[in-house]
Amino acid sequence: MASSSSTSPAAAGIESASSYPRVETGTVTRCVSACVGKIRLQGWIDDPRSPVYYLVHEEQVALPSYPQFGTEPNVYYIPPRWAPRKYLRQMFGPGVDTAIAKYTNPSRTLLGVLQLFGVTQKILYSYEVTSTDAVGYDENGVEVVRVPIDEPVVVRPEQHLNIT
Question: How far is CA 48 from CA 51, 53, 139, 145, in A?
Fold first, then answer.
C-alpha cells in the first residue's frame, strides 16, 4: 500500500500534514512504521522524485481501489497476486492485470523501489536505484537508507540443518 497526497504525505491520504506531528519532523506516521508486513510506503504523488510517484505514475503497479467511483483516493494498493482476478478487476479496474505482470517480473528499478518499503522511519522524498542498491533520501537530499537489491542467500551446511 502506498499512501500519498498532493500536498503532504498523510497517513491513508486523508488528513493534512498538520494533523500528523510525526510527518512535520520527517518521520512516517505510526500506521506506516508499525506495519508488520512492511507493505506501506509514504510519499508524494505529484513529485517525480518520490518513490510513490514512481509506483503510481511510471510503473503503474500501485492502483486506487474502485477507480470507477471517481473518488480519487490518496491511498494506492499494489494488488495481491493470489486473489481471484475477477474480484481484482472489479476492485482496481482494467489495469490490474498489467500491474500484477509488472511486479511479478519487476524491472531492476521497480525491484529497488519495492525494497525501500518499511526499511526506515524517515519519509523518503526521493530515491536512486544503483546496480547493487536502492537508496532513499530525506527532504534535504541526505541519504537515510541504503538496501541491497539482491539479498544474499545463505544455505546452511547439511550438518546444521534444522531437521528432526
Answer: 8, 6, 13, 19
Residue 128 grid coordinates: 536512486
Residue with cell 486523508: 14
Give which of 68, 114, 73 is closest to 92, Cα–Cα: 68
Record the cell numbers describing residue 55, joined without a space: 509506483
Asked whether the beta carbons of 50 and 125 are under 8 A apart, the reply is yes
Break the chain down into helix, strand, coil percent, rounded to 5: 30, 20, 50
**Rounded distance between C-alpha atoms, residue 138 and residue 143, angstroms:** 7
Amino acid present at 94: P
Domain spans in the chain, listed from the N-terminal domain onward: 2-160
pLDDT, one tens digit per residue, over 108-151 is 999 999 999 888 999 999 999 999 999 999 999 999 999 999 88
Tens digits of residue pLDDT in 76-100: 888 888 999 999 999 988 899 999 9
Nearest residue to 60 via CA among 111, 98, 21, 4 = 98
Record the pTM.
0.78
Amino acid found at 121: Q
Contact 23, 32 (CB under 8 A): no
Supply 36's cell numbers.
508488520
